[in-house]
From TrEMBL:
This is Glutamate decarboxylase. It holds the Pfam family Pyridoxal_deC. The keyword Lyase applies. It comes from the Bacteria. Keywords: Decarboxylase, Lyase, Pyridoxal phosphate. One of its GO terms (biological process) is L-glutamate catabolic process.
Amino acid sequence: MSLHKGPRPSRDDDRDRRRLAVNPFHAAANPLGGMTEAPPAHRLPDSPLPPESAYRLVHDELMLDGNARLNLATFVTTWMEPQAGVLMSECRDKNMIDKDEYPRTAELERRCVAMLADLWHAPDPATAVGCSTTGSSEACMLAGMALKRRWALRNADRYPGARPNLVMGVNVQVCWEKFCNFWEVEARQVPMEGDRFHLDPQAAAELCDENTIGVVGILGSTFDGSYEPVADLCAALDALQERTGLDVPVHVDGASGAMVAPFLDEDLVWDFRLPRVASINTSGHKYGLVYPGVGWALWRDAEALPEELVFRVNYLGGDMPTFALNFSRPGAQVVAQYYTFLRLGREGYRAVQQSARDIARGLAERVEALGDFRLLTRGDQLPVFAFTTADDVTAYDVFDVSRRLREGGWLVPAYTFPPHREDLSVLRVVCRNGFSTDMADLLLADLERLLPELRRQPGPLIRDKGAATGFHH
């Protein structure tokens, strides 16, 4: 590239004023300055850098990050087709909140909501209410707000004196604990017991009372990839209503499973086919197959979302209802979601998710065959499986395995389960689109190569289990 000198002195004030009026990004920068002194890391540099210099500084530092494709801890999509990337690049400057300025982007959002309402068997997809979000965490916050407001309206004679509560398993994603903290709701959690690693329907029903705003069912626990029995949960709450008159709604956190079960487990009843299910969320950027930054929240009908929570903006001279915690955000991820829906359709999604499940099940069986590990789940629900060391393995633990795999670039989280199974530490492998059979073979080969060394250890090397892993859900 050609080199440019810094700004030269102006011969007259008019020329100087014209130069200063130019966007600084368009102005020339002295490349020699960038070559002789490194810019500060914690304050703005005094002078500009050439764009190539700035790019190289940032690019080189980011090389120290892990390889996203080898990250088997994350549920988030790490690969999309180049055409999707082009569309996202073309739309990243569009603000989703400006519905009247970007009407076609708003229309694509509306179509995605309609497609999801149909996929999740809303009684009338045309009347289902939904919106895009920045991810499942925001979607869960919105669903929780709707549950609390519906409860408050029904109990106006007692609220705010009475304290609302939300019932859920101890295995919920941390966003639900945040919701309860931020919105002053008591979190009532069903602990794990024995080999049950998620919510027990009857135990959940027993925790409900007149102050319960709802119960959260997880379609795909992040701890082990298992589905919670949403239909059984609804049946237990139906029985509770028959006995006590308490009508407790259910929200299904389908961050991952709501984009897997409709294609691979069509006979599983978990969605709006259950009258007690009031709302559902999913992450478009997980098994929805879109890069990070998009989630979806849907309510079965307008009655499930209190009107007072909905804000309205002018949309092509009409009325556009909105419901969000965030305001400005790019439309790129919503466009990418619509592209993926069009690109794959039902059969395409089925093929992608089936491939991920097949790889997960096959890899789980091969890990079990090594003899050193015991499977907790087998990848036959979410394409995810969790495993721990066998009872007779004393030379190393799951944290040693995670640490040694990281040396080869693999990010496989090791973590301890919550109450009442703090005694159980596991490894978890998330199989996503882009994690191929060949990559699974490479992971297994690395694991087999490490085992002889691990078996020769005098004992587990990591004592501080809290510091042993960066996995915090």
